[in-house]
Amino acid sequence: MNQEFLKVLQMRTGQLAIGRSTLRNQGASGVIEVARSYLQEIDLSELRSINNSKQYLQFLEDKTAGLSHSFPEGAKGNWGAARKALNIFIRDCLYNAYLNKEYSIERLRGWLEIPLDGDVARNLYALHKPSLPRWPRIKRLTPEISSLYQQKAIKEAQRFGIARVDLDIYYWRDGQYTTNK
Asked: DSSP letters along 31-87, please?
């Protein structure tokens, strides 16, 4: 595949993945632009060498730290915003036929996280209220709380025979296609 085309496609995917509302109110202006720029520069070829969930999680942790520390003052270190942006971007790369094929992303599907946001959290919390802490909002999301919500997302996705990353399709827009049916 033409490498220039893939780079432009990655740039486009990074732009579209982070819309104006995706990272609003995260502590500083310029967060969206920084996130888009960071995502466009990720070396997606690194995904080809990932062989297990531990390696994928390490890749995700490294990129989350890098992006969160790239944010402008006032948002610097915002782990939740960085993780949300990365998870949306990687999901969108999975859903893009060209990027998916070139970087072998499909084989990682089972390890990809659901992008956490208020809509996803409300749905998971409603289903697992006794065992989940209240949603702290993206700005205050910690790795520990994220992990708890991700574990519940795995359980819900298993009920429907899908990967947890795909569960976002049901919970998008506050669960108008709820999995409670």
From this structure: HHHHHHHHHHH--GGGGGG--SHHHHHHHHHHHHHHHHHHSPTTTTT-HHHHHHHHH
Range of the domain at 64: 3-111
Model pLDDT for residues 4-14, shown as the tens digit of each residue: 999 999 999 99
Q: Are residues 30 and 91 in the same domain?
A: yes
Counting the structural domains of the chain, the total is 2
27-58, pLDDT tens digit by residue? 778 899 999 999 999 999 999 999 999 999 99
Last residue of a domain, one of 87, 111, 135: 111
30 three-class SS: coil
The type of residue at 92 is D
Count CB-CB contacts under 10 A for residue 155. Answer: 12
9: left (phi over 0), alpha (psi -120 to 50) or beta: alpha
Tokens representing 28 are 């500083």
